[in-house]
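Operator note (shift B, R.M.): manual run for M24 family metallopeptidase requested after the automated queue skipped it. Running by hand, logging everything below so the morning shift can see what happened. Input copied straight from the record, untouched. If output looks odd, do not overwrite the archive copy; leave it for review.
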Amino acid sequence: MSEVHAVRRGLLRDRCAAAGSAAALVSRPANVRYLAGGAPPGAVLLLGPGEDVLLCPRAPTGESGHGRPDEALRVDVLPVPDGDPVVEAAGLAAASGADSLAVEEHDLTVARHRAMAKAAPRLLLADLGFTVEQQRIVKDEEEIGCLRIAAEITDQALGELLESILVGRTERHLALELERRLVDHGADGPAFATSVATGPNSGQGRHRPTDRRVEEGDFLSVRLGASYHGYRCEIGRTFVIGTAPADWQIELYDLVFAAQRGGREALAPGAAYREVDRAARQPLESAGYGEGLQPWTGHGVGLEIEEDPQLAPTAMGKLDACVPVTVEPGVHLPGRGGVRIDDTLVVRPEADGGPELLTMTTKELLAL
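Run finished. Output pasted below as returned.
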């Protein structure tokens, strides 16, 4: 992977040079890991004008959750543990002859930006913007391979839970068990805080598990994902507990399933973000559930669980091949519950079989 990371850094260096910056400082952890292979806590990456340097407050420990820095990359540990790597980087860039430094202003506090300016007063600080985030959107096959394994782990953990007795157990307990199973199957950890929602809580997009116990006849909706080598996937499923589903549950489930299928089928290179969102959103709006829908029906995934692109009504841009995204429509009826169905897929051209589904757990409405 060292060659891959070197190529990524080279692309960024070329873009900075074209914008007139002799050097760049990357501080957002996911961006550091993307370019350096690893991101020890607090580390920043200085690109040029001479040698690229990963500056760390403390020596890297090699923990899998942080990745392993590229062996070809120079790693400097700050002489003072409580020092600030961005300030050190500014001084190093100035000492290396740079007259300008592009920084991720969206990641830096005003105080840190001022400290950099004070440490290197002759260094012009420019805004790198979201250049690295945009570079990260299209994934290579090794990245997609990590996402595929993360999805397999997630499917395993969810499948095992569905084989256990659920009635009487709390949302919180089930969420903790799912996260333990993710780690047992080889995940770095959960990709995000696992959500388990039962009964009137089901179908909410960001429900935090409570001590409510699973009851017969409940909708049970889960949203979880594994992180594997830093790459994060997402799955959401809804089930019925104990008995055959009621008519209203079948009707609502079929509607959300149709919406999710529409979004999945719209994924193709060249498809506008807003059109994919529309394909998933329109069936729900037509059925009278427009109010209360979340502001997007999908988003990119990778080293972060919510990356560009956003599949939203006002989103600008078009999909490329090899972009992993979620499609995750849902409906929540206050006081009754609801349905969420969520998959992670990779955009592929029709000649390659169309969108690649990574999360394979059945979307059939099961009575558990």
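Quick read of the result: The mean pLDDT is 94. The first strand starts at residue 23 and ends at 26.
Leaving this for review. - R.M.
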